[in-house]
Specification:
By secondary structure, this protein is of the alpha/beta class. It is built from four helices and 13 strands. The longest helix has 18 residues, at 8-25. Mean pLDDT is 93; it is low at 1-7.
């Protein structure tokens, strides 16, 4: 089995290291363009044209990730209410994002909202229509390679998959980060599709 299919912590560490290095080499302008193109593809996602009274989650992107600001603005323009995460120990708190929400730098250098939490881990996500999730890579079965902290795996652990009535799970990644296979463990969660600068990719699960 090659590096991408190597199981366990070692295989994940190698792949994370490689993708992080590749992301550091991407010009900031490329991340901005990718984010704008993803926002342009967002209306093609399997969601209603209007998202009034719908909650969705998104994340505040790091400089090396696709810029999520255009996506957030696109979702807001369609009427969605946005929940964004804030690290609380080993868990994620969720805060509703408003135009007036103030931000601060969190423990991992990620912009985090200042405000009252609406819930922790998966509890508020059960009421969402869609979850826009960060990832380093996604494979052809929808398995997600995260940063290694396990925050999203814990948040998604008890949440039904979309086919079982849960919110649709959408990974936000660069197109070349959709791989044939990524290392997986038993607790790793899958996504339904990936939103990339090249378009939308569905997975067979």
């Amino acid at each position: 089995m090659d590096e991408l299919g190597a199981a366990g912590v070692g295989g994940k560490a190698l792949l994370r290291s490689r993708i992080r290095a590749e992301r550091r080499l991407r010009p900031a302008a490329e991340c901005a363009v990718a984010g704008a193109r993803m926002a342009g593809h967002a209306p093609d996602l399997p969601l209603p044209a209007r998202l009034d009274e719908c909650f969705v989650t998104c994340f505040m992107s790091l400089p090396t990730e696709p810029d999520t600001f255009p996506l957030i603005e696109s979702l807001r323009a369609r009427g969605a209410s946005l929940l964004v995460p804030r690290v609380a120990g080993q868990h994620l708190d969720w805060v509703e994002l408003a135009p007036s929400t103030q931000m601060t730098s969190g423990p991992f250098g990620i912009r985090e909202p200042i405000g009252n939490s609406v819930g922790r881990d998966g509890a508020p996500l059960a009421q969402c229509r869609a979850l826009f999730l960060p990832a380093l890579a996604i494979d052809e079965h929808g398995y997600r390679l995260g940063q290694g902290g396990g925050f999203y795996d814990r948040a998604l652990a008890d949440l039904p998959m979309h086919r079982n009535g849960g919110p649709i799970r959408i990974a936000v990644v660069f197109a070349d980060e959709v791989l044939d296979q990524v290392p997986i463990n038993e607790h790793d969660c899958r996504v339904d599709l990936a939103l990339t600068e090249a378009g939308i990719r569905w997975f067979d699960g």
